[in-house]
Amino acid sequence: MNENASVSSLLQFIRQAPTSFHGVAAVSEMLLREGYCRLQESMPWSLTPGGKYFVTRNQSSVIAFAVPQGDFQSFQIIASHCDSPCFKVKELPEISSSAYVQLNTERYGGMLFATWADRPLSVAGRVTVLEDGVVRSRLVNLDRDLVMIPNLAIHMGREANTSYNPQADLMPLFGDGSAKERFLPLIAEACGVQPEQILGHDLFLYNRMEGTVWGADNEFFSAPRLDDLACVYASVRALLESRDQGAVRLCCVFDNEEVGSSSKQGAASSFLKDVLGRICLGFGKSGEQLHTMLSGSFMLSADNGHALHPNHPAIADPVNRPQMNKGVVVKYNANQKYTTDGVSSALFRQICKGAGVPCQSYANRSDQAGGSTLGNIANQQVSVNTVDIGMAQLAMHSSYETAGVKDLDYMIQAMTAFYSSRIVALEDGGYRVEPEIAVASANEQACGEEK
C-alpha cells in the first residue's frame, strides 16, 4: 500500500488525542519540539520580535503564535476545534446490578449513536487529585479495550433500527457483577494515585479502532475524530512550516465547539481576545492600534464539511456538492451560520490559486437548516474578516469518519500559503494579497525563561 506521509502522521496524532485534553497536550509537544515557548495566563508575558509562543486554557484549548522580526500591523489566524461528539462519564460512574456493572454516561454533542455500538471502547480524560495538600490535574488514558455498548438482538427489539434512548440503550458494559466499585480504582491506578486522592474527573469514552487507508487506489482514509482533528493537525503543520510575512500568525485550537463553544475555553470565550490584547501590550501598542490591526486581520475558520454521499445524493444541494479528494471546501450560508462572504471568499481563493490548491463550494439545500461553527462564534469577541473552510468528509459525527487522502495535503498547502501571504487592508472592502514575501524568519529564536 502506498502510504501518504501526511495521513500517516495525522493518524498517529489522532491516536495520541482521544480527548481534547490529550489533543492539546499533543499539539503542545509539537510546538515545544519546534522551539515554541510555553506561556502561562496567570503570569506576566515577556515577548520579543521573532519569538514563538503558545498558551493553554483549561488544558483543553491552545493558542500558538509567531511574532515577526519587524513591526506588525495585523493578525492572521486559523481557528479549529479539538472536541468531538462522544459519551462523557458521569460523576457517579457505576450502575450495578446482580449480573453486570455499566458505566453511567451522557452524550456530549450531536452524535450518531449507532456507530458506537458493538465495538471496543476505552476511557480517557483528566482527573483532579490531591497531592500534599495541592489539587493537581493528571491526564489519563486507560488505552485498552475496556467497555462495549452491546446492541439488543434484532429478535428482541425489532424497533432497534429506528430509535435509541441514550439512558436506556447506550450505557456501556464494564464488567460482570464482581466489577462493582472497580472503575475509579482503575482510573487511580492509571494515574499513579490512591482512589481517595481523586477529587473529580472529566472522562470520556473513545473509539479504540485504528485509522485506516482504503479504497481501490487507497484514496480514502477513516479514523475517529477527523472532525476536527484533521484541521487541528493541518493548522499546526502550516504554522510550523510557514514563513514570516510581517503579521502575527496565530493557530487557535478551541474546545467545546460541539456543544456551542460557550465555555471559558471555547470560541465564544475571551481567550482569543485576551491573547491578542496581551500581544499588543507586550509590544507597547495602544488600544487604538489593536482596533486598527483587527480591521486588517483575517481568519480561517477551519471545520470539516459534508461530502456528497454515495447513497444519498438527493440530500445535497443541486450544484454545491463537494467531493472527497477534489480540494478545500469553502462553506456558505445566507443566514450567517458560516462567515464566508464575497470578500473573504475572494481573498482565500486568490491565495489558494497562487498555491495551486483547488477549492470547492458547499451550501446546504435551501430546505435544510445548517449547523454553525467557529468563525461566527469567535467573531462575537474579535471581529475580523473570516472565511469558513474544511475538508469534505462522510459520516460526520460518527465515531469513525471518512475523508480523502489528497485533501489533507491540499488543506496543509492552503493553510501554509495563507500564513505565508500578507493581506493588506486598503479601505473597507478593499484588500491586496501579497503572496510569499521574503522576510527572514527566526527559526532559532531563544526561548528565554518560562513565565
Provide the descriptors you would attach to this structure in a database record.
nine-stranded mixed β-sheet; Aminopeptidase i, Domain 2; 451 residues; 23% helix; 2 domains; disordered C terminus; alpha/beta; 22 strands; Aminopeptidase; five-stranded mixed β-sheet
CATH topology of the largest domain: Aminopeptidase
Tertiary shape? globular
Return the CATH class of the largest domain: Alpha Beta
Please give the domain count: 2
Mean pLDDT figure: 89
Report, as a whole number of angstroms, the end-to-end distance.
47 Å
Tell me about the largest β-sheet. 9 strands, mixed
Poorly predicted spans: 437-451
Proportion of residues in helical segments? 10-25%
Structural class: alpha/beta
Order the strands across the largest sheet as they lie in space: 1-2-3-13-4-14-18-16-17
The second-level CATH architecture of the largest domain is 3-Layer(aba) Sandwich
Describe this structure in words.
The chain is an alpha/beta fold and 451 residues long. The protein has two domains: 5-84 and 224-435, Zn peptidases (Aminopeptidase, 3-Layer(aba) Sandwich), CATH 3.40.630.10; 86-207, Aminopeptidase i, Domain 2, CATH 2.30.250.10. Helix content is 23%, strand content 29%. The chain has helices at 5-15, 20-33, 183-191, 226-241, 271-282, 287-295, 342-355, 374-378, 405-419; strands spanning 37-39, 52-57, 61-66, 75-81, 86-96, 100-108, 121-131, 134-141, 173-176, 198-207, 212-214, 220-223, 248-254, 298-302, 305-306, 328-331, 359-362, 385-390, 392-394, 401-404, 421-427, 430-435. The strands form five sheets. Strands 1-2-3-13-4-14-18-16-17 form a nine-stranded mixed sheet, with helices on both faces. A five-stranded mixed sheet has the order 11-12-20-19-15. A hairpin with a 3-residue loop joins strand 2 (52-57) and strand 3 (61-66). Helix 2 runs parallel beside helix 4 (226-241), helix 4 (226-241) crosses helix 9 (405-419) and helix 7 (342-355) crosses helix 9 (405-419). The longest helix has 16 residues, at 226-241. The radius of gyration is 23 Å and the shape is globular. The model is unreliable at 437-451 (pLDDT under 50).
